[in-house]
Amino acid sequence: MPERLLSRVEECYQQAERFFKRDFARPEVSFKLRGQKAGVAHLTENKLRFNPQLYRENHEDFLRQTVAHEVAHLIAHQLFGLKIQPHGEEWQLIMRGVYELPPNRCHSYTVQRRTANRYIYRCSCPQGEFPFSAQRHALVSKGRRYFCRRCKVTLSYTGEQRVESPSG
Question: Keywords in UniProt for this one (predicted)?
Answer without folding.
Answer: Cytoplasm, Hydrolase, Metal-binding, Metalloprotease, Protease, Zinc
